[in-house]
DNA sequence: CTATGTGAATTTATTCACAGCA
DNA sequence: TGCTGTGAATAAATTCACATAG
């Protein structure tokens, strides 16, 4: 395969493929063609083949893709191969919901630490995690955590982001409706619920 | 202005512009140029001008855009002009977090009804809303609610979606990690948290 | 002189269509 | 034969660059 810059859109789709394949694997499916995977995931077959082709020859002509192998390959590309720990900042309703969210495990994430600034919450257990005081946020450095989830009010988000960066985090999943300023080496993905909802009426 | 098909990407950006403009308005800003808005929102100025140009001539050459007028225009385009009611299905942690989410108001949404199937929750008040029994879901027809938010476990999501469609809903914001099959006239936007998180390590 | 609005140029992403391998 | 892998063709989105209006 010749060199090609990998489209961002391709990376965005890989987790979608991964979930679909995981589902097929759970169903006992051994191999899958681009056409049947495409049908299942509501994307085009050519898209799937092209996306995979950027990374190598994963399939077998005349047969299709081996589900288990393909899952492993995608996990490698996305660097989900080994479980990595994440810290959750904010133990409110959203934080609590995230702690209970089953989706993280699929992607090899485990929330290892939870921080909050409310005395009422510090020390309490939520699920398996005990809420720690936000002033000890640099603890994440010692524990080698590189990834954090921000679930605090918008006003506090930038301050928390600064502290996380200082503590060595290089990936942030941000649920606060704010643009976060961080150094280039740190990747932020913001999930802004209202922003998604905002375009819904247009299509209705 | 000649006819142009409006790119989906433009629609996706309008809520981003809207939030930025709202912020500027709160700061007392009266008018804004594409360049300063672009700086503020971290997009390109040409993009902003092109996006707006699809809908008409909103600006004044040599001056810029009137913030208040522009907000009104975007709200019109997105059909956010009058507050519309929404139903929330699922009163778990996520549902509770969504009820407390301040972002909805900005976009003219108000959660008017909350449904759940858990006897422990039915009848309880969460914030201003009283949780109703999911078996009475068709109540939303009577109340003229056209928009719903699904915050139930993945397994239950499709069943709920079917019921919502039957009740006349034509827009769904889906938080369950499942593809929802609905008639073409119904618009679904799925926010899949794990899917966003899944591509974060790739960039780290 | 400033900043919009917009065709044209460019870049990016998707789809087509088919050669080539199992 | 069946399905992948991939250049070539097409479509979509972004950026450029400038004429034009205030």
List keywords for this structure.
homodimer, 204 residues, alpha/beta, seven-stranded mixed sheet, three-stranded antiparallel sheet, elongated, DNA-binding
Descriptive report:
The structure is a homodimer of 204-residue chains. Chain A is of the alpha/beta class. Chain A contains 10 helices and 10 strands. The first copy, chain A, has a 7-stranded mixed β-sheet. In chain A, helix 2 crosses helix 3 (45-53). Chain A is elongated and about 60 Å long. Chains A and B meet through helix 1, helix 5, helix 6, helix 9 and helix 10 of A and helix 1, helix 5, helix 6, helix 9 and helix 10 of B. Chain A binds a DNA duplex (22 and 22 nucleotides) through helix 1, helix 3 and strand 2.
Q: Give the overall shape of chain A, derived from the CA principal axes.
A: elongated
- State the separation between the terminal residues of chain A, measured CA to CA: 44 Å
Write the H/E string of chain A, N to C: HEHHEEHEHHEEEHEHEEHH
On the 0 to 100 scale, the average pLDDT of chain A is 92
What's the gyration radius of chain A in Å? 20 Å
For the secondary structure, the number of strands of chain A is 10
How does the major sheet of chain A shape up?
7 strands, mixed
If helices are DSSP runs of H or I spanning 4 or more residues, what is the number of helices of chain A? 10
Write the layout of secondary structure elements.
The structure is a homodimer of 204-residue chains.
Chain A: H1 8-26, E1 31-32, H2 34-41, H3 45-53, E2 59-60, E3 64-66, H4 67-77, E4 84-89, H5 93-100, H6 103-106, E5 109-116, E6 125-126, E7 129-133, H7 139-142, E8 147-150, H8 154-166, E9 171-174, E10 187-190, H9 193-198, H10 200-203
Parallel strand pairs in A: 4-5, 4-8, 5-7, 8-9, 9-10
Antiparallel strand pairs in A: 1-3, 2-3, 6-7
Chain A binds a DNA duplex (22 and 22 nucleotides) through residues 1-2, 5, 7-10, 33-35, 44-47, 49-50, 52-53, 57-65.
